[in-house]
Design brief:
319 residues, mainly alpha
Length: 319
């Protein structure tokens, strides 16, 4: 497995390079640049007094795109830094390190909520197939899959404020300062993300459990008089987990996209809001740095899933 892991890590490098190139080019294809944003923000009166060409030379935007990309990658490989923002000249990695815990906490809570909801409901629906409980679970799952997260987030922000004058806190509560307040702040957006994710996982759990429960070795376990809990937990669930783990891993990129929207709706200072702000200002180094971080997380997540397979099924062997 060690050789396989090394090969996969080496293959991750060209994949990341390709992703950074695509995102860097895509960001430059957006109409306008950071100079246009600066001139616009200064107002029409100051627009005529700003030497835009000189400002582009100062920011390094007067050279071709591939030269800009080379400079950015050179900072990473030669100096171990993402450089500075084009607006404000603040350190990109320091700002990312300050906001990354917010995005990680939101994503981790959403995954935990999704698994806590999906696994028990999916297993119980499979054990009680075609009962009222099974139909209820499947109906809720379909509704959850069909409901857009961004719409639900907006409704949660809008109607409680209109009806009861309540709205979530817009000021970040640090876990070190108030653990309960911090968890309460992240609970609603994590619930919205987690419930949407749990719908697909619940359906997959039910499907795989039904398939496993029809296998001969499960019938043998029932015939031996083993208790239902032992048959389900010890024999059925473990063999049904591989597709479920795969599905959870495939939802991580979708979860990152959903986190961007939830952070914007609930005013959470994470990487998602930072990315949208950089995209609006055409701050190319910040856009590329955040994309590199999130792409690395997605690729390592895929690698982690592959590493879990042999522990779930000993028949998996990596050479």
């Amino acid at each position: 497995m060690r050789a396989y892991l090394i090969r996969r890590l080496l293959l991750t490098i060209p994949a990341l390079l390709m992703l950074t190139i695509l995102v860097f080019l895509a960001a430059h294809f957006i109409p306008g640049d950071v100079v246009d944003y600066i001139v616009t923000s200064l107002g029409p009166q100051a627009g005529g007094r700003v030497d835009e060409d000189a400002l582009r030379r100062l920011l390094g935007l007067d050279v071709p795109v591939y030269v800009q990309y080379g400079r950015w990658m050179g900072n990473i490989f030669l100096h171990g830094t993402f450089g500075e923002s084009l607006i404000g000249k603040w350190s990109i990695e320091e700002r990312i390190l300050g906001r990354l815990p917010v995005t990680i906490e939101l994503g981790a809570m959403a995954i935990a909520i999704a698994l806590v909801i999906a696994l028990p409901v999916g297993i119980y629906s499979a054990l009680r197939q075609d009962t009222a409980t099974d139909y209820l679970g499947r109906t809720v799952a379909v509704i959850g899959m069909a409901t857009p997260n961004f719409w639900l987030g907006i409704m949660v922000m809008l109607f409680p404020a209109i009806w009861w004058g309540w709205s979530p806190s817009v000021e970040l509560i640090r876990f070190s300062e108030d653990p309960l307040g911090n968890l309460g702040m992240f609970l609603i957006p994590a619930l919205i993300l987690g419930t949407g994710m749990s719908a697909a996982i619940m359906r997959m759990t039910r499907t795989m459990m039904l398939e496993v429960l029809r296998q001969d070795y499960i019938r043998t376990a029932w015939s031996k008089g083993l208790k239902e809990r032992v048959v389900v937990v010890r024999h059925a669930v473990k063999n049904a987990l591989i597709p479920i783990v795969t599905l959870v891993g495939l939802h991580v990129p979708l979860l990152i996209g959903g986190s961007v929207i939830m952070e914007e709706i609930f005013v959470l200072p994470g990487l998602g809001r930072m990315f949208l702000d950089a995209l609006d200002k055409r701050d190319y180094p910040v856009i590329s740095a955040i994309n590199l971080i999130l792409s690395t997380v997605v690729l390592l997540n895929i690698l982690l899933i592959d590493m879990i397979y042999p522990y779930l099924n000993p028949r998996f062997r990596y050479q």
